[in-house]
TrEMBL record:
NCBIfam families: bilirub_TF_BilQ. The keyword Transcription applies. The keyword Transcription applies. Residues 2-134 form the HTH marR-type domain. SUPFAM superfamilies: Winged helix' DNA-binding domain (SSF46785). Keywords: DNA-binding, Transcription, Transcription regulation. This is Transcriptional regulator, MarR family. It comes from Hungatella hathewayi DSM 13479. The lineage of its organism: Bacteria, Bacillati, Bacillota, Clostridia, Lachnospirales.
Amino acid sequence: MPDFLAYYITALRKDLNAYSDARLKQYGLTDGLFYYIIYIGKNPGCSLSETARFLKADNGHVTRCIGKLEQLGYAVRTRDTADHRHYHLTLTAQGETIFKELHTLLYDWDQAVCKNLSDIQREQLLELLRLVTDSREDRKEGSEPCTRP
């Protein structure tokens, strides 16, 4: 099993979830909502569809998640003045505070899991992961995953 990228991705995802779980719970957040806070914090004024595209989620799911963040007092939907069908997303002051803490949490976790890598190795790892991710985004819907030659 360790010959597969999926094994390492799963192990890292479980480790991040364990690392972040206690901090997320104190704010009433789940690991899924975590990424919405990060995305909106880095992209204030983004739309629901931009958020859906980036997080690879359907619009209905994004709408429900944003509704939950609004209930918690962390995000606000503002109607676009030119096109009333569109909304822009921003974090509240409380959401901004949580964003900063969660951003620090991600940085700290990255530092912990990459502690045995040099700065160059870390950059190489990130570049390789970008290439792998981009290759998956380029594939057509319904096509088969990459196979070994």
